[in-house]
Amino acid sequence: MTAFEVIKDAVDIIEVAGRYGVEVDRKGKALCFIHCEKTPSLMFKNNRFHCFGCCADGDVIDFVAAVRGISILEAAKELDGQYGLQLFDNNPGRDEAFRMVHQNEREKRRLQSFGEWERQACIILASYCKMLRKYIDGFEQAYGSIEIYALALAELNYIEYLYTSVFIEGGFEDYVEFYRTHAYEIGALNEFFNENGEIEDA
Q1: What is the pLDDT of residues 18-29, one digit of tens each?
Q2: Domains in the chain: boundaries
C-alpha cells in the first residue's frame, strides 16, 4: 500500500474540510470552494467530494491540493504532517515515484469524470430543447407573452446550434471549450431539471 492509499484510508475528508474552512452539513453538503454559489452543490460521501455544479471531484488529498493550490505530493505531505503518520522519509526517488503514480491515477479519474459530465451535459441540452419546443408549440393555446415567445425561440435556436456544433459535429477540443464556457449554465439547468423532474433519460 502506497503512502497515498494509507492517507486516504486513515484521514476523514469531512474533518479535513472543516480544518480548511469548508462547512459541511449533516447531509454531507457544502458550498463549493471552487466556484461561487448560493445553493450547496458540493457533496461529501464515501470519503470523497464531488461538486454537481462544476464537477470537481476527488479524494482527501485532491481536496487539500485544490483548497491550498498545491501539488498532490505537497498535499499528501501536509496531511501526513498534520496527522503524524510519518509516511514520507524525504527520499527524492520515492517522492517522485509516489508523485508519478498518483498523477496517473488522478488523470484517469479526471478523464472519467469529464466523460460523465459530457454525457450528462448532452442529455441536459436535449431536455432543455424539448422544454423550449413544448412552450413554443403551445404558445397559441397558452396565449403567452409575445416577448417571452420571441426569447424562447431565440434560445431554442441557440441551444440547437450548441448541441449540433459540440455534440454532433464537434471533437474533444470542442467538448473542453464547451465545459470551460458553459459549466455553470449546465449546472444550473441540472438543478432545475432535478427539481422539476423533466430531464430526459439517457
Answers
A1: 999 999 999 999
A2: 3-88, 116-196
